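Predict the assembly for these two chains.
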Amino acid sequence: MQAIWLQNKKLSYKTDVKIPTPNNGEALVKVLLAGICATDLQLIKGYYPYTGILGHEFVGEIVQADNAPERIGERVVGEINIVCGKCANCLRNHPTHCKYRDVLGIINHNGAFAEYLCLPLKNLIQVPDSISNEDAVFTEPLAAALQIQQQIIIHPNDKVLIIGAGRLGQLIAQTLVLTGCNLQVVARYQQQQQLLNEHKIAWLLEQDIAHHRFDIVIEATGSTTGFNLSIQAIRPRGIIVLKSTYKDNMSANFSSIVVNEITMVGSRCGSFAPALRLLEDKLVNPSALITNKFPLSQALQAFEYMQQPGILKVLLQMDN
Amino acid sequence: MQAIWLQNKKLSYKTDVKIPTPNNGEALVKVLLAGICATDLQLIKGYYPYTGILGHEFVGEIVQADNAPERIGERVVGEINIVCGKCANCLRNHPTHCKYRDVLGIINHNGAFAEYLCLPLKNLIQVPDSISNEDAVFTEPLAAALQIQQQIIIHPNDKVLIIGAGRLGQLIAQTLVLTGCNLQVVARYQQQQQLLNEHKIAWLLEQDIAHHRFDIVIEATGSTTGFNLSIQAIRPRGIIVLKSTYKDNMSANFSSIVVNEITMVGSRCGSFAPALRLLEDKLVNPSALITNKFPLSQALQAFEYMQQPGILKVLLQMDN
C-alpha cells in the first residue's frame, strides 16, 4: 500500500508498504481522509523520536474485524491512545496517561497517512451519517479542544483570551464560544481573522491585549512569545491553559506566577464522544478550516505547502 | 530609633531614624521580635527594587491608636498587605492582589526591623495570651504555608512531596502532616532532617525521589533544581504548587507539563486567623525552627550568619 514514512527526521512516500495485519482485538481500517497536525510537523523536526507511518487524525471504514464481523463497513474515527487498562493511570480513569501506551502515528504504532491502519476495536467510534468526512476528520483535534472544559470550569462571566488562531486555536474558539463566555482571540493572519468573523468571534492583535485583565488565557501557539503574552494578559489568581507542546526548554519569568498566584494547566487529548455530539448538532464547523486537500501521493508537497504562514488545515485524501 | 535600612542593595544599621507617625486609620506598633525571611535576602540582592526599613515578620505591641485607644497595649501580629479595598482584585475578595497595595518592608512601606512600625488597625490581629512571642513571630510564614490548602484540596490519600526543608518547607510540612496525607520531605541538611524526625515527618534525599509517583508536589526551594525535581516527581494529572519566587527567568521543559497534563499553582500570602488557631491549639511548633536570635543592633551580623547552609530561622530581638 501507499504510506508516508518517517525515519531520522526524513519523510518519504512509499508505495510498497505491507498492509498491516490486525492483532487480536484490533480491526483493519481503510483510511478515507486524514489531517496534518502541528504534532506531525514536530515529529518531522525530531522533537520526539518516532519511526514509522505518520498521522493520527483520520476518518476511515472498518474492512476487517475478526472479533466483531458485524462492525465491518462502519465509518469510524479512532481514539489515538492504545492503552493497557491495568496500570495506575488507567485505573485512575486517566487512560490517555497509560504508562505503557502506544499512540497512533506518534509512539510505536503505525499511523493514518496510509491506505490502511490497525487500531483496537474499542478505540474505533462510529460516525453518525449526518457528519461529513470533512468534519469527522476533525474529531481528534476537536476532542483536544474540548479537553479544556473537562479540566477547568469556564464560567459564562469569564473574560477568556485565546492566544493563537491557527488550527487548534480556531477549534478551541468554536467550542469556547458555546459557553457564552466573554471571548477574544489573538489572530495575526487575515485568513484566521476572516474565519473568526464568520463565526462572530471577536479577535484582536497582540499589541492590543489588555494587561492582567483576563480570567482565563488559553496558550495555543507553543511559542515562548505566546507564553509570555499569556503571563502578561492573565489577572492575579487567573488560569492559563497550556494547549501546545514546546520544543526544548523554555525560559520564562516564574516569579510573577508565584506573586500573582497564577494556575497553569497542561492540556492534551480529549474524549471523542462529546466532539461527535457537537459535530452532529452542527454547533461547530471545523471543515471551514480546510485550506487545501492533497492526494496521499502528494503528501510531501502538502507538508511543504503547510510551511506558509496563515495556512489552516491541510488534508490528505486516500482515494485519488 | 534604631532600624535596618536597605538602599541600593546595601543594608545599614541606623540609630537616628525618626519614629514614624501613624496616618489616619493606622496604629503605632512597638516591635518586640522580628523574623528574617528568604524574601528579605532576595530584596538585598536586588530582585525587587525597595528602599526603606526591611522586615515583614513580627510580633509587637500597639502603643498609639488615635481611632481605637482601647486597643493600646494589645500584643499583635500584622497582615503585611496594605490594600485599597476598592480595586477589582479587592472586590473579588483577593485583597493580597490589590492593584495599589503597599507591602510592609517589601513595597513602599517601612518594615519591622526597627523599634517601631505603622500599620492600619485592621491589619493588626491580637495574639492570644497562650502563644509565646517566639511562636507568634511565625504567624506570617505559617499563614503562607496554609495558603496552599486555601488553593488546592489535599486529600488524606494523596502522596505529597515537599521539595526543600528550610524555613518555609518545615512550616509547610508541619501544616500538611495535619491532613493525614502520605507526606515526604526532601531534606539535605542534618538540622532539617532532625527537626522533621522530631515531628515524625518522613524525609528523603533528592536521589531517592520516586519518578512520576506523587499526586502533589510542593516546590519550596525557589531553585531551577527544585523545579526540575518537581517535574520529575509529579504523576500525570498531578498538581505542583510553586511556593517560592524565582530570581530572573528560569529555563524549564514545558512539554512534559502539557503531555502529562500537570497543573501548576503559584502560591503566596495567606490569612493570619487560621495560623493563629493552629498556634493556639499547639498543633504546630514553629519556634523549634529558631537557630539563633540577634539584637537589632547586630542585624548585619545576623544576615551574614544566615548565609551558612542549613540555617533555619534567625530572629531579631528589639529589647536588648
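The two ends of chain A are 13 Å apart (CA to CA). Residues 85 and 91 of chain A are 7 Å apart (CA to CA).
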